[in-house]
Design the sequence.
């Protein structure tokens, strides 16, 4: 595999991993936003 392609894939994966970690780290804030948008079962919807 080309080194540049590998680095690109790793960086792209890091975006998703970082987003996932932030999603669970800020669970209460995300739940509050979901409640504001009137999502039923907001906490379950955030998970």
Sequence:
């Amino acid at each position: 595999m080309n080194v540049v392609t590998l680095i690109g894939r790793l960086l792209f994966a890091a975006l998703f991993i970082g987003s996932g970690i932030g999603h669970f780290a800020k669970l209460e804030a995300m739940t509050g936003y979901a409640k504001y948008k009137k999502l039923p079962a907001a906490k379950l919807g955030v998970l």
User: Anything to note?
Assistant: Residues 36 and 42 are 9 Å apart (CA to CA). The chain has one domain: 3-46.
